[in-house]
Input
Amino acid sequence: MSTRIIQVDTIARVEGEGALRIQISDGKLEDVKLRIFEPPRFFEAFLRGRDFTEAPDITARICGICPVAYLMGAVHAMEMICGAVIPRPIRDLRRLIYCGEWIESHILHMAMLHAPDFLGYPDAIAMAKDHPDVVKKALRVKKLGNDIMVLLGGREIHPINVRVGGFYKVPTKEQLRRLKPDLQWGLEAAMEMVRFASQLNFQDFEQDYEFVCLRHPDEYPFNEGMMVSNKGIEVPISAYDTVLVEEHVPHSTALHSRIRGRGACHVGPLARYTMNHEKLTPLAKTSAREAGLAEICCNPFKSIIVRGVEVVFAFEEALRLIDEYEPPDRPFIPVTPRAGTGYGCTEAPRGICYHRYTIDDAGAIQDAKIVSPTAVNQSTIEKDLWHFIEPNMDLPDDRLQWECEQAIRNYDPCISCSAHFLKLEVVRQ
Amino acid sequence: MPGKRRPKLAVWKFASCDGCQLSLLDCEDELLDVAGALDIAYFPEATRSVQPGPYDLSLVEGSITTPHDAERIHQIRRDSRQLISIGACATAGGIQALRNFKDVREFTRIVYASPQYIETLRRSTPIAEHVRVDFELRGCPIAKHQLIEVISAFLNGRKPNVPTYSVCQECKRQGVVCVMVAHGTPCLGPVTQAGCGALCPSYHRGCYACFGPKETPNIPALSQWRRERLGASDLEILRSLRTFNAAAAEFERESIRHEHQNHPG
Ligand code: SF4
Ligand code: SF4
Output
C-alpha cells in the first residue's frame, strides 16, 4: 500500500487558525478533515451575568474582521426582547454602517486574499508589483468602506458608537453628504473590479448547495428578514434553532452546523445572491449581468465576482441612504430591560451570524448563543474539498495544497470566529 | 535598496479576534510603503509565503490560553530580534481573561458539548508573562497611527513615541467636553491610557478603557467619585473594570475589591 501525506502547516490568508488533513489510500480519497485550532475564548460563558447593554461591544471582539455583524446581531436581539421600536433613520444608519463593513471586508478578501490565488501570487503585495493599479485602486475602495465605518462607528475595527436602541451620536446630513463624491468614485471602481474578477479563469465546480440566508420583502438583506433556503426553508429567525443544529466534532474547537435531517448548508454571498438577486440595486444588477452571472451561482470559486457585485450594491445603497437621510430626533431610543429571550440574525459579509439571548428583568444575561457564519460553512467547506480533491488527487502535493487552500478561501473563512492557519496534511497510502 | 537587506517582519497570532493584525491591513495609505521598507516574512492573514526565521521584528497579537501556545511563544521569542505585543489580548490577556475570575471547566461545559476535546489553560495571560517583550502597544484594537509610529521607530532605531498619560488629557487637548462633568456619564478616561484620540467622549460616550490602565492610575478615587456623584453600584463598577483589560494588574486589583463588597464573604 502506498501512503502519501501532504501536511500544510499554514493555509494563509484565511483569518484564523486551522488545518486540513487529507488521507488518500491506493488512489482513493479516504478522509478529509478541516481542523480548527482557534483557542476557545468562551464568549457564551462569560456573557452570563453581564448587562444586556454590554453584549454588543463584548461580542464584537469575537471577530475584528466583521465586528458590525456582532454589534448588529446583539442589538437586534436585545431590542426584540425589550420590545423596542427603532425609528427609520436609525434603521437606515445601521444599514449604512453595514455597507461600510461589506465594502471593507469584501474588498479585503477579493483583492488581498482571493485574487492573488487566481493569478498565482502568494499575496497582494507580490501582485502589486505586476498589477500596481489594480491593488492601489482596491486599497482605495477598501478605505471608503472604512471611511463609512469611521464616520458612523468612530473607528473601523470595533466601532464604539453602536448601542442598544441606536447610536451614541448620529452624523449630520452635511457629514454624510461630504462622503458622496468618494462613494460615487467607489461605485465606478467597484464595477471595474467586477469586470476584472469576471475575467479570471474559473474551474468548473458547480455544486448542489442548500443556500441559507435572510430574505426581506423590499430590500437586499442586512439586518432583517426571514431565514430562507433554496430547498424550502422559510421561517422567522426565532426558529433558527429548529432548523440548524450544531455539533461539536473532536477535530475542531469550532462547532459545526448542519440543517436538521439534511446536512451541510452554504451561507454567504452566493446564498444571498441566489435568493435575493432581484432585490439588488440597478447597477449591481447590470454588473452581475455583464459579468455573466446567471440567476443562481453554484460555483464557489465565482464568489469573488459575487462579492464584487455586492460591493457595487453596497455603494449604491449607501448613496441612496445618504440621499434620504434625515437625522433622528434622538440618536437612540431608551430601552428598558424585561425578562425574555430574543434573536438577532444578520448578514455578515461571510453569511448569516446568529445571536440568541435570554435576560432577566434587571437586564442580566442568563444565557447566550452565537453562531458565526464560518461555523455554519465548515461542513460545506469539507464537502467541497471531497469533491474538489477527488479529480485532482494526482496533482503534486504543493500544487494540491494551493488548490485546496483556494477552495477553502472561497468561503472567506474568518477563522477567528472558528479557524485560522490551516495546516494541510495529506496522507497518501 | 541594493546592498541593504530589508528587516524581516513576522506577525503572529494567539487567542484573539484578529482585529489588531487587521489594523496593519487597514493602513491602506501606508501598506505598500510598509511592504517596501520591511520584508513581510511571515503574516498568514496576508500572505501564503513563509520565510524561516530569525525575524527582525515580530508583532504578536493575542493572549496565551493553551499549553501549546505557552510553548510556541518561546520559540517565537528565540526567533525574533525585537518582539512587540499588540493589543489588549497580548498586553493584558484580553476579554478572554474573564475566565481568570471563574472556573474555566465550567466555562468549557457551557460552550462545548464535549469538553474533553478542549485543551485550555485556567488563565488567559499576556505575552510578557511568558517571554521578554520589547514594547507593548495598547488598545482593543490598537490605534493605526500608533502602529505606524512603532514600526517607523523600529526602522529608525529609536524609541516609539507613545504617551502613557490619560484619555482625559486627550479630551482637554482636543477640546472635547467632559462627559462625566457635563452629562454625568460614567467614564474611565481618567484612569485609561491615551492613544485613541478621546474617541468615545467625542461621540458622547464614556470611555470603557479599551487601552487599559494609564501609568499609575488612581482607580479607587475614581470609583469613589462614581459612587458618590453618579450613584454607581459596586456591581456597575465591577463590570466596567472587567472588560477587555480585565486582567491588567490595576484593573484586576480594583475589580476584586468591588467583588468582595458586592458579594461579602
Ligand atoms: S486586543 Fe481587541 S482588537 Fe486586538 S485582537 Fe484582542 S480582541 Fe481583537
Ligand atoms: S475612549 Fe476609552 S474605550 Fe473609547 S476608544 Fe478610547 S480608550 Fe477605548
Remarks:
- The first strand of chain A starts at residue 3 and ends at 4.
